Amino acid sequence: MLITSLHLFHHGPSSRRRKRLPDQTETTEVPLENSSSSNEDPMKYTLKHFCLSVIFISLYYGFTCLIPDYPRPSVSSPATINTVSVPAWADKLKELEEELLRLKNMADYLLPTADSLPNFALESQGAKVFGWKSSDTYKSQEVVYNWFGFSIRRPGVGPGVVIQGKSRMLPGRCWAFAGSRGHLTIALSHRVTISHVTLGHLPKFLSPTGTIGSSPREFSVYGKRDLEDEGTLLGTFLYDEDGNQLQTFKLPGNRKGAFSFVKLQVNSNWGHPEYTCIYSFRVHGEVEQ
Fold it and tell me: Between the CA atoms of 77, 78, 83 and 85, what dihedral angle is there, to the nearest 10 degrees?
């Protein structure tokens, strides 16, 4: 038994090796599933992506149905915006500027800046006009009516109206002197260091003719310590016919002392050939301490 087993152990493997054909070659064993998948992979890939696309589209439309459809603001197309021509905009802008200017003039007429400053050339406060130190009042040639053959002419308004401090100008309620040059001398209510002066005339929008050629144009202001004083020039200014009815002018920074009298010298008007009108004149500053 022991000899037989040893004989098998010695000859078994060699006998098995001799049974194999000399031309037989070893092949690597390939799994069946891999060999079959080479023909099935494209189909599975296409089917898988088709299913995913169907699922994605279904989810997209499902969510869009749940979200409310809010209204979106409409945006004007460039063609609509460019339909308005540039000249039309320019005309509209000019109309708005004219309307703003008219409203500003109305606001200044109702609440002028001069009303917020003390006025030392105010008749109710003690100021006086020296007529004999002023130009003659213009004599109107207009006949109002006849009385028993006598011509009754409209009486002229005296220079005292200039220092009454009225902010509302009424046509004809002014002091007029002949020509375009004249002067007016005023005794102030206090001895004052003058900082500003205000000259007033009827505005264009209240004039019956729409023009104010009789308003002063260039004027000068002199400070006088007494009536015999020749006066110290405090400044020369230009009244704007298109500006506010009450125009306030600041004197140059170098103050030239305190004065008890002021002389208003009108050098020219805005074109009226016969006379010049002054509606209001004010003097602002500080009382000498």
Answer: 150
206 vs 165: CA distance, rounded Å: 19
DSSP 156: P
* Residue whose entry in the numeric block shows the structure tokens 């009486």: 155
pLDDT beneath 70, residues of the chain: 1-54, 56-86, 105-111, 141-155, 254
Q: Is residue 164 part of a domain?
A: yes
Span 106-135, pLDDT tens digits: 666 666 778 889 999 999 999 999 988 899
Report yes or no: 241 and 204 within 8 Å, Cβ to Cβ: yes
Is 52 a member of any domain? no
Domain that holds residue 215: 119-287
Indicate yes or no: pTM above 0.70.
Answer: no
User: What does the alpha-carbon distance between residue 179 and residue 132 come to, in Å, rounded to a whole number?
Assistant: 18
